Amino acid sequence: MELPELGRRCAERGCRRLDFLPLKCDACEEVFCKDHIRYNDHKCGSAYKKNVQVPVCPLCNTPVPVQKGEIPDLVVGAHMDKDCKYNPAQQKQRIFTNKCLKPGCKRKEMMKLVCGQCGGNFCIKHRHPLDHDCKGSSHPTSKAGCR
After folding, report:
1. 3-state class (DSSP) for residue 31
2. Helices marked H in 36-147 — which ranges?
3. What contacts 39, CB < 8 A, 6 or more positions away?
């Protein structure tokens, strides 16, 4: 044995493999080989410290804290009954609400496109004064859409 100080032995009783790239368990601080580093592989007694899952409310998608010894389903159920900020009306909210005022056009836009001359709300196709036969002032300020 030329370099006995290199590497460490796996802490698993049945293994004790000499490993030159040993891994340290972040829960129990023991050193293991690649085959025994997972909590289940070496039956880690401190795994509960690191293996924590936080349930998420299925309605409002917020994490619900669970104390040690509590049943997650009951805690989430209590959250849904009392603290949940879920609003079903918010889900059905329409995005395209700004209807074009040009006669015959049925398009709707996400945001208002207000004409500077007549103050009407129009779609992208009819947003320029010449495109919607603007009656706001005597002369149009834009020639966009003229053919």
Report:
1. strand
2. 47-50, 72-82, 88-91
3. 25, 27, 47, 50, 51
SS3 of residue 129 by DSSP: helix
Residue 142: other Cβ atoms inside 10 A: 15
CA distance 97 to 106: 11
Quote the CA–CA distance of 100 and 120 in Å, as a whole number.
8
Tokens of 127: 């947003």
Q: Look at residue 93 in the predicted model and tell me its pLDDT.
A: 63
| Tokens 């349930």 sit on residue | 55
Query: What's the confidence (pLDDT) of residue 72?
Result: 87
Q: Output the DSSP codes for 57-68.
A: -TTT--B----T
Of how many residues is the chain composed? 147
108, 100 Cβ separation under 8 angstroms: yes
pLDDT under 50: residue ranges of the chain: none
The answer to whether 39 touches 51, Cβ cutoff 8 Å, is yes
Query: What pLDDT is stored for residue 53 in this prediction?
Result: 78
Residue 91: the pLDDT is: 59
63 touches 75 (CB < 8 A): no
